[in-house]
Amino acid sequence: ETGVTQSPTHLIKTRGQQVTLRCSSQSGHNTVSWYQQALGQGPQFIFQYYREEENGRGNFPPRFSGLQFPNYSSELNVNALELDDSALYLCASSSSLVYGYTFGSGTRLTIV
Amino acid sequence: AQSVSQHNHHVILSEAASLELGCNYSYGGTVNLFWYVQYPGQHLQLLLKYFSGDPLVKGIKGFEAEFIKSKFSFNLRKPSVQWSDTAEYFCAVNANSNNNDMRFGAGTRLTVKP
Q1: Which residues of A touch B106 (CB under 8 A)?
Q2: Cβ contact (<8 Å) for B90 and A42?
Q3: Per-residue pLDDT in tens (0 to 9) along chain B, 114 residues
Q4: CA atoms of B3 and B31, how far apart (whole Å)
Q5: CA–CA separation, A39 vs A89, rounded Å?
Q6: Taking a C-beta distance cutoff of 8 angstroms, is the pair B33, B53 a contact?
Q7: Residues of B with Cβ-Cβ distance to A56 under 8 angstroms
């Protein structure tokens, strides 16, 4: 079985720009969650998608948005980038919380 | 809102020493509890989880954790650590009433000296 793959692995953007991060979920997983992990901190929940619908959201502003596609892959979009958005963005997929999440390796986003 | 506290930011042990990493959560209802590990350069991996039943949970690589409901704790233990256990360890909590929100602690970095 394939794991969770994220692209790109690294990205540098300037303040005010927009970015799209992509995630291919593990085969058979219909739920995708996105997390932001700042340096030295634990992952912070951004939102979750279940069968193409947003299924919960953490304490992130509306400029963080997402999509899930029929094949359960997902995108995270961030508009009007700020310096504090610099972080590792993690995607995790699951079929049921009983089995835990499968995480990707993340996208390292740097805002300059 | 639920939150997770990990008491130790960085723990340094010698090989064969015993390990206990603390995790406390703040949520009064039913919770599901997890420990994840992140080895250097790798993605987060599930170590063990607790949903119900026996509060002493055994995971991979000799790790175990004990859920103590009265203390809102889920501490991770290993009797004898190895150099290969050097990693970052994260405790995570999901409130049973909210299946879509898993909150992580800030993590504990474990360094095992050979």
Answers
A1: 40-42
A2: yes
A3: 678 999 899 999 999 999 999 999 998 788 899 999 999 988 999 999 999 999 999 999 999 999 999 999 999 999 999 999 999 999 999 886 666 678 899 999 999 999
A4: 12
A5: 11
A6: no
A7: 98, 100-101
